Amino acid sequence: KNHTIFTAVGCIRFLQMKSKEPEKHQKLANLDPQTKRINSDPLTSKLLRDIKEMLKSLNYTDEEIEYAYGLIKLYGYNLPDVPDGKVRSLFPVQSLLSHSCLPNLQYFEKEGGRKIVLQSTTQIEKGDILTVRYTPFLQGRITLTKWLNEQRYIKCKCPRCGDATELGTFTSSALCDREECKERGGLLLPLDPVNRTDWICSSCQTITSQAKVEEIEENYIAKFKELPQ
User: Fold this and answer.
1) How many CB atoms lie within 10 A of CB 160?
2) Which residues have a Cβ under 8 Å from the Cβ of 101 and sit 6 or more positions away?
3) 3-state DSSP assignment of residue 175
């Protein structure tokens, strides 16, 4: 289900929309495909080259394919009701919303994710940037930061991401592995929440490397996936 052809088909459908459904295509015209970033990204550039090779007989230009791929990658929304596979949709309004871990909007899925309803989570004043969460609320900072950087090419600068305790939620704070700290509830906190360097125990003040904390978070994720859904 991860074969290149599925992404290529998505690009074809988007490119055909320009001639078959120009009004829908125009609604996505203001989105930035970040073509330069995608072409310089080793994680995506090979896939994009393979798609171009696959579609070369259809007379689409490289620029058109890059534009279609960029929008699908950066703004595509996975429909949750398709068993054993992924179907990506583009929602014009949702695609314009910025990410924040403290969003002023939340969305609800209807018709198996084929419709999305937006609802405010706080009072929104005129001129406020409209935001939603791109990631799950309980996702750890390391995984979240990596996903936003690799999948959306953005860096979250919300108050929660700028605070070592994540505004008192301690969502990403692993327990220090020292026995005395386990009893005291010693938590690992980032020394620099913005740049995510080393971490320090709130109890014993021992420094733990970013790589070690990444390993701890990955173990937590693996255990979570083993739980009954």
Assistant:
1) 17
2) 133, 135, 144, 156, 158, 160, 161
3) strand
CA dist 153 → 35, 133, 145, 207, 229 (Å): 11, 15, 10, 29, 30
Gap between the Cα atoms of 27 and 179, Å rounded: 57
Q: Which 3 state secondary structure label does DSSP give 131?
A: strand
Look up residue 30 and give its amino acid.
N
CA distances from 104 to 23, 113, 149 (A): 29, 21, 22
User: Which residue bears the tokens 């990658």?
Assistant: 73
Distance linking the first and last C-alpha atoms of the chain: 22
Q: Are 81 and 113 in contact (CB under 8 A)?
A: yes
- The structure tokens listed for 170 are 């301690």
Q: What is the pLDDT of residues 75-118, one digit of tens each?
A: 988 776 666 556 778 888 889 999 999 999 998 887 766 788 99
Q: Are strands 87-89 and 77-79 parallel, antiparallel or unpaired?
A: antiparallel
